[in-house]
Write a structure and sequence with these properties.
Blueprint: E1 2-7, E2 10-13, E3 18-26, E4 33-39, E5 46-51, E6 58-60, E7 68-73, E8 78-83, E9 92-99, E10 112-113, E11 117-122
Parallel strand pairs: 2-11
Antiparallel strand pairs: 1-3, 3-8, 4-5, 4-9, 5-6, 7-8, 9-10, 9-11
Length: 123
Amino acid sequence: QVQLVESGGGLVQAGGSLRLSCAASGRTFSTNIMAWFRQAPGKEREFVAAISWSANSTYYTDSVTGRFTISRDNAKNSVYLQMNSLKPEDAAVYYCATRFSGTNVRTGTYLYWGQGTQVTVSS
């Protein structure tokens, strides 16, 4: 089992920045790929970003490329999402997730999920 706990959400004005954190515990050797997803009210959950264990590979959805940066600190079993130039459409509950397989990171199944952290962007 892997437990994931997100933090760092909050209210920010459009154009502002937030940094989300996700701490993993338990069987952390399974956390090869760590990712962020988000779900806005009335919408399906969508992939935001992912990062490999070595951080050599990062993946982003088109709408956040150039504005968001995913990073990880394996010594702290943590992954981060730096979100800059936030837009109202970025508002959502952001979830941290992890899986072992490095294939299909955008569309594959993630076994472990955090409880989510709310990001609100005011216009």
